[in-house]
C-alpha cells in the first residue's frame, strides 16, 4: 500500500516577495525584503520573506531586520500586506482542490496533497504535478516548487531541492537512495540542538543516521531518537490530514526598545492575556495550560508553563498565572525584547472541587459583553488596565 501512495508537497516560491514583484514589475530582479521597517538598521522586527535576489546576500526568513539591512542596505523593504497575501493564497488553494480533496494546509503558502486516488483523472502522477505547476503560474503569475514521494517527509524535502519553480520526484524504491547523501538538517523534525549532538558524534548525513543503533539513539534523545531513526530510513506513516483541531491560541508582543520597566511589562502581559482570552471565546475554547514566553536581549528565548485545575478563557485567570510565572523568572539583569502568552490543552475536564458548584454565568456574560463592545468599537475601546500600544503578533495553531 505504501508504494502506491503519491504525496505531493506544494511550496510557493518566496511567496510574499513574489506577489509584490508580480504586482509591481519595477521590483523584478531586485532584492525585495518583506517584513518590519528596518529604520535605517535600527528596526526591531524580523524578515518575513525575501526574494531570491535578496537571498544572495545571505538574507532569510526570521532574520532580524537590522541584520538584513546591514547585509543589503540597498534592498527594497516592504511592509507585510497579509490581506493581499491571504487573498492570493485562497486563489491557490481553490485551484489545488480541483486536483484532489485530500489537502493538508501547512501554512499560507504550502500544503500536502494526496493524489493517490485522483491522479488518473489527469493521466499520471507526473502529469498531475505538471498541471498543478502550470495552472498556478498561468492563473496567478507565481511559481511553485513541488516534491512528490510515497511519504510526507520525503515529499517536503524534495520540494526544497530545486527551488525556484522546481519539481523533484522520489519513487518508492528509491527513498533510501534519495535520503542517504543529504545533510541531516534536511530531516523534517530534527531540531538545531539534535543536529549539534549528531555533528559532535560525526553524524552529518541522513544515511549515517540511518545506520545508527536504535537503543543508543534512544539513550541520547529519548523516544525522539527512535522517531528520527525511522524518518532517516524513509519510514513516515503520517497521512495527509484534511482537518486540524486548534491546539493552542497565542499572542506575542515585541517592544520597540528592550525593557525591564515593571509597569510596562505588566501592562503588556495584561494586553496579551486580554487578546488570547477574546480569541479563545471567539472559538468557543477553554484551556488548562498557560504558557509564558520571554525573549531577552540577544534573542535568548525561554518558556514557562502552568496547568490549572479547571479550563478557562477568562483573562483575569490567565493573567494571574502569567504574572506568577513572570515573577518567578530570573532575567539576570537582561532586558526583555519580546513577551508571549499561550493557552493550550482544550476540552480537558478538571477536578470539580464542589459538587454543588455552578459555572459563573455572570462572569461569562460580562466577558461576552466586553467582547461585543470591542467588536463594535475596536480593541482599544475598553481595557482592564493601562496598555501600551505597539505592533503585536497573534497566532492560532
Keywords:
single chain; 397 residues; 14 helices; 37% helix; globular
Describe this structure in words.
The chain is globular. Helices cover 37% and strands 22% of the residues. It starts with 6 loop residues before the first strand and ends with a strand. The protein has helices at 15-23, 52-55, 65-71, 82-96, 125-140, 152-159, 175-179, 192-200, 206-210, 214-221, 223-232, 262-282, 315-328, 361-377, and strands at 7-12, 32-35, 47-50, 76-78, 103-107, 110-114, 144-149, 167-169, 248-259, 287-296, 301-312, 336-346, 392-396. It has 397 residues and is of the alpha+beta class. Strands 5-6-1-7-8 form a five-stranded mixed β-sheet.
Largest sheet: 5 strands, mixed
Structural class: alpha+beta
- The tally of beta strands, per DSSP, is 13
Q: How are strands sequenced across the largest beta sheet?
A: 5-6-1-7-8
Q: How many helical stretches?
A: 14
The level of helicity is 25-40%
Please trace the helix and strand order, writing H or E for each element: EHEEHHEHEEHEHEHHHHHEHEEHEHE
Characterize this entry briefly.
With 397 residues, this protein is of the alpha+beta class. The chain has 14 helices and 13 strands.
